[in-house]
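Form P-L/3: holo structure prediction, ligand zinc ion.
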Amino acid sequence: MDKNEEIRNEAIKEINNSSDPASLEGIRIKYLGRSGKVTMILRSLAELPLEQKKIMGPKAQALRAELDSIIVEKKKKLLEKKHSALDVTRPGKKIGLGHLHPLSIVEKEIIDIFRSMSFSVIDGGPEVETEHYNFDALNIPENHPAREMHDTFWLSQNLTNNKRQMTNDKEFRKGDISSRQSSVVGGRLLLRTHTSPMQIRYMESHKPPFQIIVPGRVFRYEATDASHEINFNQIECLMVGKDVNLSNFKFIIEEFFSRLFKKSITVRLRPSYFPFVEPGLEYLIQCVKCGGKGCNICKNSGWLEVMGAGMVHPNVLRAGGYDPREYQGFAFGVGPERIAMLKYNIPDIRMFYGGDLRFINQF
Ligand SMILES: [Zn+2]
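OUTPUT (holo model):
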């Protein structure tokens, strides 16, 4: 009797103290296993006289059943705990995280630099643009030779009509086709060839002084090669005020490139022609790879052309609703692809949109 009670207390104490299924199994074997303490009692019953066997037998059986059910219960609890508990010692599972595209990285850097110089970032603008905003208002009238430089995706007249149908269904149903075509405001539709239309759109609804940058996607209808894509990005910059001049431009842009490439950059301004600026200039920086000695990137010239710029043409200011005798400004466009290619030594612009993970994963 006493021995049974002793074993029972001992077993229950051990079961309560066990904290994992493995140690619990050890306890089960110790008491209920083939040569466990309770099993041994049951076996020894055979040697007892019948009278004692009648008393001891059921008690030993009851003890075995009791311990067995306590162990089963405890095991259930331990397993539940194991599933719900956070095991901080387990090694972590690596989760593949997305990351920024090299163009996004560069664009963000460019924007951050201009923002720190008090430029406002103007988002978007329509990618489907009118002939008026893309060309005419920027001093590129029809038959102007500069239109040749902009290989343009024109939208077919059908598409134009469909669009009008969507935006003005009532008029479409009642009117005749020719009058609707002639009433398309701003002329034919196209995919914008540069972000400069945003100069006009912004001037129309804002008063100077201001300084803005406008990142956006542009399109050119041309054969692709290592340095040409049909679809690329520009960041347009426009600063207008009463006494904005080229030296403001020179300072800002020198500061910009020095910060972008994290070193002092030697620059060169070269007269050039763009219809929407007067005077117009090309902006060159000393080759960031060879430092001006000549290499394959700068085609041995030591210089890299990085942007077109100039003072906003009076006609453009007028188209934006300003009096050019009162206001002046400068404008330029910078290409994130070009900058990223220089910064990361990327040899082919088509890699940006190729979707090849071996390329993308390097950033
Ligand atoms: Zn070079």
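COMMENT: Residues 110 and 260 are 7 Å apart (CA to CA).
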